[in-house]
């Protein structure tokens, strides 16, 4: 899977799922965190009174910004995305429902000029410039492409051979997190003025819209590395100069290198304290409404409501739990919104297990689980509108969401038993089914500690007891890091992120040899291969969504994963602040340039 | 003296080396620093490999340790898993922690000492009982709960009041009467015990009544129609923007530091006052104090020269060690008040999203150094306090 603007989110999702604490997870994994469903309250009410053009709006950041270069393998973080949303330009903007549009201030038009080979023409606005006055142009696209396409290969040693570490593994020139998409771009042509960019693909990449988001300033890279033109053929030495600056030069903040192509410009960064964005005087779109956006570090989510009430911060997005929600509701004039986010929980059934290899057993599990009860107990205490998720690819607020659960929408213990008996299982004296002397006893793997997942597992265990299935909680600290990728579990509880890059699903559901890098359960259904192939080359959004819904239907039929529920996200803003719109994928700051604050 | 310090510093070197080996062993086994990276979708093996080499994860224990130690002891703390240099962040954490801890501890130490001495000298008096009660109350306060209570009443409610301050006349009258009455009762009791001249109750009560009344009355008029900023903060270690004048700047620093200092103060104060009381009692009952009194030395001199000075010796150990430990940060307090100090640094390094070896090592080495230094300081203080000890 890959994402452009918010590549880090996925990583977070996985680790978050375990409360690894990356990506702004809640430290104390106690309590019934999250739950959620569609946005319950529509957008924020406009604040009464006149918006103050000198306003300073403070956002409580749980995690620190670290780098401008979110595409570098060691620097990608969601906390960076929250800042870079307002600084780095790109031709496409993602909306809260994961649909997208051309980001007009930056791009005049983005058109598919040919479907075979896929050719995209980006026309940038004449007036689009970086905050140091340099034009935003084709060079910046080149930097994104060159750093991301992997064609510059590996580092060479003095003899001109691949430089290798002790074990003989080569080291890449660009320390980029992923080459997906960019590697399919065959060539990138610039017009005379640099404002028209034509990208020609060697192979159709249907998710092309995620490319070229969050462009970094190429002229800075050229200046700092002393290489005149990075779009040219470069000597090995020059190439390394450019790549080395890209790999490390954007860490932290330096006013002379961290120029902005967005509505705000970064002016101050105090490690561990705060980060300040000021209105970008060179911004070519509609000027930002508030003079400053400040990211104030408040790593402890439980400290955020008090800070909001005390007027020290204006916008908070902590991981919700019941205590926190009560505290926030008690604040006078507060604007509280819930959103069913793009991170969703699910159970993965491992086909390497002798019981789970049988479809009937998997269906029996899907029949005995009461997802409604899990959502009711664990999630609705926070967001009363949380609902069960019935699609693995589209979230309910997407226009393409389709409920494919069919017969497995609700719990049916008798059906579970019948399915097991059909499969040759016999009920033992201990009330547990067994086949060929082997008890139907399965472990529910999850990362530890995580109280919410523990409770979810406990509910699942109780629900399937009457159906004669013995489940046990199987927590371990390194579950997501080690056991999950190794396929060392019977049933795994973790989270994925739904992204606008639908092709990111390929690596989860394709057979392992055919690109299923994250298909750890050894799930092979040859029918999926042509479907994914046609989806990857289909440029029509609706037709493509249809294919993905067919994929989801097959996944329901094969029942290798059971989707559960989306995580609830909480967005709270002070009564004096208007314009805060939840956006799970891009983060709350996606539209910060339109936030307003009334003068006191 | 100099020779002593040099000798102690030389001993510190093997201690630090040993500590570094031990910590290195623990850190190396504390988890996978690249866990977060490995879980990134579509990450290539090459990239992971490059990161492993950058962090030295590909090497066996001994060469990895030697690499790290070589860099560390020549002043290079390396970079963290996000490729940021460790030292600037650690240095800022040290500064913030020092600011918080120094103020809170100095206050707690001096107040605790004074209360402890008086409690010891006036054992089983009303003062001693109330001081003991308060100490134990503070001692048993759960820091997290207390901090949040302070946020509600000390910050949010107080700031609300500041925005539109007023003192009601009823409140002024009740408070005045209460304070005046209390002093009257104390005076009466002391008269009965023949500790005060007859009529003291009227003098004490009257003065207290008058002073409180005057203060409250001026408060009633003073706050009328005034407005103030919300100055007590619940998060952050310093103001984002510095004000023009020194006074305003100081004021805004106070606003940020007030609540965390109160929390740390109450926790440490209780310990110091109890230690000091016990130590004073021991000295006051010792033979040399009885001898001093028998010789007819004045009571003040007995307490200050003969009891207090000796009572300080055990306190020196407690204080210096706890100062050394506090450099490691007051984890809960820092977390709750989003104070960017050492405790916060340590927590972040532990799981952000995975253990960060260079940050953890730098943290432990710095705190170990501080502990050693404070130990040396403790030894020097002994020598000053106790003439029998020679350096």
SSE map:
The complex is a heterodimer of chains A (600) and B (391).
Chain A: H1 7-17, E1 56-61, H2 78-84, E2 92-94, E3 100-102, E4 107-115, E5 118-124, H3 138-148, E6 185-190, E7 196-201, H4 218-225, H5 236-248, E8 264-270, E9 274-279, E10 292-297, H6 304-309, E11 315-316, H7 322-329, E12 335-349, H8 359-368, H9 371-378, H10 413-422, E13 426-427, E14 433-435, E15 438-439, E16 441-447, H11 451-464, E17 470-476, H12 479-486, E18 491-497, H13 506-509, H14 528-537, H15 541-558, E19 561-573, E20 577-578, E21 596-597
Parallel strand pairs in A: 1-10, 16-17, 16-18
Antiparallel strand pairs in A: 2-3, 4-5, 5-7, 6-7, 8-9, 9-10, 11-19, 12-18, 12-19, 13-14, 14-15, 20-21
Helix pairs in contact in A: 4-5, 8-10, 9-11, 14-15
Chain B: H1 2-28, H2 35-38, H3 45-55, H4 61-73, H5 86-121, H6 126-139, H7 143-163, H8 169-192, H9 200-222, H10 246-284, H11 287-294, H12 299-327, H13 331-336, H14 342-350, H15 357-385
Helix pairs in contact in B: 1-15, 5-6, 5-10, 5-12, 5-14, 6-10, 7-10, 8-9, 10-12, 11-12, 12-15, 14-15
**Portion in beta strands of chain A:** 15-25%
Identify low-pLDDT runs of chain A. 1-47
DSSP helical segment count of chain A: 15
Q: Output the radius of gyration of chain A.
A: 25 Å
Mean pLDDT of chain A: 86
What is the approximate shape of chain A? Answer: globular
DSSP strand tally of chain A: 21
Q: Could you characterize what this model shows?
A:
The complex is a heterodimer of chains A (600) and B (391). In chain A, the strands form six sheets. Chain A has a six-stranded mixed beta sheet with strand order 11-19-12-18-16-17, with helices on both faces. A four-stranded mixed beta sheet of chain A has the order 1-10-9-8, with no helix packed on it. The longest helix of chain A has 18 residues, at 541-558. In chain A, strand 6 and strand 7 (196-201) form a beta hairpin. Helix content of chain A is 24%, strand content 20%. Chain A has helices at 7-17, 78-84, 138-148, 218-225, 236-248, 304-309, 322-329, 359-368, 371-378, 413-422, 451-464, 479-486, 506-509, 528-537, 541-558; strands spanning 56-61, 92-94, 100-102, 107-115, 118-124, 185-190, 196-201, 264-270, 274-279, 292-297, 315-316, 335-349, 426-427, 433-435, 438-439, 441-447, 470-476, 491-497, 561-573, 577-578, 596-597. By secondary structure, chain A is α+β, with helices and mostly antiparallel strands. Chain B is mainly α and 391 residues long. Chain B is 75% helix and 0% strand. Chain B contains 15 helices and no strands. Chain B has helices at residues 2-28, 35-38, 45-55, 61-73, 86-121, 126-139, 143-163, 169-192, 200-222, 246-284, 287-294, 299-327, 331-336, 342-350, 357-385. In chain B, helix 5 (86-121) crosses helix 10, helix 10 packs across helix 12 and helix 14 packs antiparallel against helix 15. Chain B is flat, with a radius of gyration of 27 Å. Chain B starts with a helix and ends in a 6-residue tail after the last helix.
């Amino acid at each position: 899977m890959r994402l452009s603007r918010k590549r880090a989110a996925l990583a977070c999702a996985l680790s978050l799922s375990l409360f690894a604490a990356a990506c702004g997870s809640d430290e104390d994994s106690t309590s019934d965190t999250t739950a959620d469903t569609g946005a319950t309250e529509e957008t924020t009410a406009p604040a009464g009174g006149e918006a103050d053009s000198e306003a300073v709006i403070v956002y409580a950041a749980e995690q620190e910004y670290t780098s401008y270069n979110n595409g570098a393998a060691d620097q990608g973080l969601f906390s960076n995305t929250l800042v870079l949303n307002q600084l780095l330009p790109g031709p496409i903007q993602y909306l809260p429902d994961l649909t997208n549009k051309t980001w007009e201030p930056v791009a005049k038009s983005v058109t598919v000029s040919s479907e075979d080979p896929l050719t995209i023409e980006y026309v940038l606005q004449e007036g689009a410039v970086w905050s140091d006055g340099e034009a935003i142009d084709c060079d910046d696209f080149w930097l994104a492409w060159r750093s991301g396409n992997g064609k510059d290969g590996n580092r060479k040693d003095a003899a001109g051979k691949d430089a290798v570490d002790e074990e003989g593994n080569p080291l890449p020139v660009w320390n980029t997190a992923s080459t997906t998409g960019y590697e399919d771009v065959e060539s990138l042509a610039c017009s005379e003025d640099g404002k028209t960019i034509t990208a020609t693909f060697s192979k159709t990449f249907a998710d092309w819209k995620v490319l070229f988001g969050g462009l970094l300033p190429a002229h800075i890279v050229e200046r700092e590395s002393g290489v005149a033109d990075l779009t040219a053929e470069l000597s090995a030495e020059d190439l390394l100069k450019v790549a080395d600056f890209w790999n490390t030069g954007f860490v932290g903040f330096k006013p002379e290198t961290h120029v902005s192509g967005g509505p705000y410009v970064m002016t101050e960064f105090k490690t561990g304290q705060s980060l300040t964005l000021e209105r970008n005087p060179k911004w070519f779109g509609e000027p930002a409404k508030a003079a400053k956006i400040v990211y104030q570090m408040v790593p402890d989510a439980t400290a955020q409501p008090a800070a909001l009430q005390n007027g020290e911060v204006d916008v908070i997005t902590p991981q919700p739990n019941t205590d926190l929600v009560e505290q926030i509701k008690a604040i006078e004039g507060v604007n509280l919104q819930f959103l069913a986010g793009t991170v969703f929980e699910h159970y993965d059934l491992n086909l390497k297990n002798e019981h789970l290899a049988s479809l009937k057993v998997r269906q029996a599990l899907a029949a005995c689980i009461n997802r409604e009860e899990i959502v009711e107990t664990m999630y609705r205490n926070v967001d009363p509108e949380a609902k069960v998720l019935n699609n693995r690819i589209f979230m309910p607020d997407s226009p393409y969401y389709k409920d494919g659960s069919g017969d497995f929408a609700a719990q049916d213990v008798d059906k579970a038993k019948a399915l097991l008996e059909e499969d040759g299982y016999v009920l033992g004296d201990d009330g547990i089914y067994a086949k060929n002397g082997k008890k139907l006893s399965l472990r529910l793997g999850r990362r530890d500690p995580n109280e919410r997942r523990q409770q979810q597992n406990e509910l699942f265990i109780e629900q399937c007891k009457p159906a004669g299935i013995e489940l046990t909680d199987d927590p371990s600290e390194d579950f997501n890091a080690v056991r999950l990728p190794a396929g060392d579990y019977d049933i795994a509880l973790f989270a994925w992120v739904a992204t606008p890059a639908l092709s990111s699903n390929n690596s989860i559901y394709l057979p392992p040899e055919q690109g299923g890098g994250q298909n750890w359960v050894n799930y092979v259904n040859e029918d999926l291969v042509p479907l994914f192939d046609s989806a990857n080359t289909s440029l029509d959004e609706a037709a493509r969504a249809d294919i993905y819904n067919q994929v989801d239907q097959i996944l329901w039929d094969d029942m290798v994963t059971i989707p559960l529920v989306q995580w609830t996200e909480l967005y709270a803003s002070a009564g004096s602040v208007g314009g805060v719109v939840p956006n799970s994928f891009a983060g709350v700051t996606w539209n910060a340039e339109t936030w307003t604050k009334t003068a006191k | 003296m100099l020779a002593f310090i040099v000798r102690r510093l030389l001993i510190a070197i093997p201690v630090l080396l040993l500590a570094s080996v031990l910590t290195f062993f623990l850190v190396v086994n504390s988890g996978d620093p690249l866990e977060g990276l490995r879980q990134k979708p579509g990450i290539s093996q090459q990239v992971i490999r490059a990161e492993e080499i950058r962090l030295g994860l590909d090497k066996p224990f001994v060469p990895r340790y030697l690499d790290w130690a070589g860099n560390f002891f020549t002043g290079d703390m390396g970079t963290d898993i996000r490729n940021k240099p460790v030292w600037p962040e650690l240095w800022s954490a040290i500064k913030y922690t020092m600011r918080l801890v120094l103020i809170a501890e100095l206050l707690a130490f001096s107040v605790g000492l004074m209360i402890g001495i008086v409690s010891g000298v006036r054992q089983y008096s009303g003062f001693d009982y109330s001081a003991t009660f308060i100490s134990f109350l503070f001692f048993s306060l759960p820091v997290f709960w207390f901090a949040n209570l302070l946020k509600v009443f000390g910050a949010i409610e107080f700031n609300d009041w500041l925005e539109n301050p007023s003192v009601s006349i009823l409140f002024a009258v009740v408070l005045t009467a209460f304070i005046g009455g209390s002093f009257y009762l104390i005076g009466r009791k002391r008269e009965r015990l023949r500790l005060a001249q007859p009529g003291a109750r009227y003098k004490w009560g009257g003065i207290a009544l008058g002073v409180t009344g005057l203060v409250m009355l001026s408060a009633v008029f003073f706050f009328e129609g005034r407005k103030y900023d919300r100055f007590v903060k619940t998060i952050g270690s310093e103001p984002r923007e510095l004000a023009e004048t020194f006074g305003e700047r100081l004021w805004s620093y106070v606003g940020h530091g007030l609540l965390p200092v109160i929390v740390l103060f109450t926790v440490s104060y209780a310990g110091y006052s109890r230690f000091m009381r016990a130590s004073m009692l021991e000295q006051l009952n010792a033979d040399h104090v009885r001898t001093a009194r028998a010789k007819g030395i004045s009571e003040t001199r007995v307490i200050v020269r003969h009891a207090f000075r000796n009572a300080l010796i055990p306190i020196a150990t407690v204080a210096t060690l706890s100062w050394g430990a506090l450099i490691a940060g007051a984890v809960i307090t820092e977390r709750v008040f989003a104070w960017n100090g050492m405790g916060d640094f340590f927590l972040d390094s532990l799981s952000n999203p995975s253990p960060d070896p260079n940050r953890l090592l730098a943290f432990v080495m710095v705190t170990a150094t501080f502990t050693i230094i404070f130990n040396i300081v403790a030894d020097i203080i002994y020598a000053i306090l106790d003439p029998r000890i020679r350096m």
